[in-house]
Amino acid sequence: xxxxxxxxxxxxxxxxxxxxxxxxxxxxxxxxxxxxxxxxxxxxxxxxxxxxxxxxxxxxxxxxxxxxxxxxxxxxxxxxxxxxxxxxxxxxxxxxxxxxxxxxxxxxxxxxxxxxxxxxxxxxxxxxxxxxxxxxxxxxxxxxxxxxxxxxxxxxxxxxxxxxxxxxxxxxxxxxxxxxxxxxxxxxxxxxxxxxxxxxxxxxxxxxxxxxxxxxxxxxxxxxxxxxxxxxxxxxxxxxxxxxxxxxxxxxxxxxxxxxxxxxxxxxxxxxxxxxxxxxxxxxxxxxxxxxxxxxxxxxxxxxxxxxxxxxxxxxxxxxxxxxxxxxxxxxxxxxxxxxxxxxxxxxxxxxxxxxxxxxxxxxxxxxxx
Length: 370
What we know:
Low-confidence stretches: none
Number of helices: 13
Mean pLDDT: 96
Number of domains: 2
Helix content: 40-55%
Distance between the termini: 61 Å
CATH architecture of the largest domain: 3-Layer(aba) Sandwich
């Protein structure tokens, strides 16, 4: 009997041997491998979570009017785009949306079966294609870690169910030319799905959104996990093309996707407050600069600052990412993510600046950096 689909090993599970090595250091591991926030969430969101009074009723699958209005207001303030609340809907954390979108879009257009995504990227883009029975098609990146659509074949463009962008990008912090992606998508009739969960942490130039080129054929995906340190609440939202948002929202109602009411109240409060996000951006940029300094002075490794996001995409000495990860775990008790977690990038490691400053200073002391 055929075993059918066998899920691959989850990337971070492969770090278990190095985790044990890093944890053996006095003071434990400095874990920079996973982008799990460690800084405090906004007090207003925590207060709303505890006092919404929505625990007993079923929450609206598309999101409460208050939350959708808060999301539309945030898009207006921070990204200078006008999207009506009717073209906004919530999701149970953006990972489930990223994983599910190819399946739902293929149901809408069965003759298309290919998912285009950045060749070096968050692995859920490719996994979403596999789970949908689609063909994942990695799109090469240029020297600045941006999508190179000139490398997409005519056949793949004709059969694409969607094109994923991630700006600022994970893991390398690249900033795609979003207007060019939108123009390409409209020319080929391919929805452009823009994962913008790190948009508040854009370092080079203004914040970018696919919606700045209009909503036709576009969908922006946003998360509160990173901007507001609310990863544990599992909430995000998507906005853009009204027909696409309506289709997805109706489908998700039938499937029973509902963000709990108290979580929706907390998200509305978080989206209404920009002060805590500005403070978080300052923390991340400070840590990026400090960790870059630690690597340069402690190991002689020169790491460029990213265009956005809170990751350092560090070149591994000799191009050996796993060797570099083992060295960091052994010598400094530091866990990092080898580049092959994200595609054909064996010469880099990713370091997430999510640990508090005192943990980075512990790393500095272990590497002899003052």
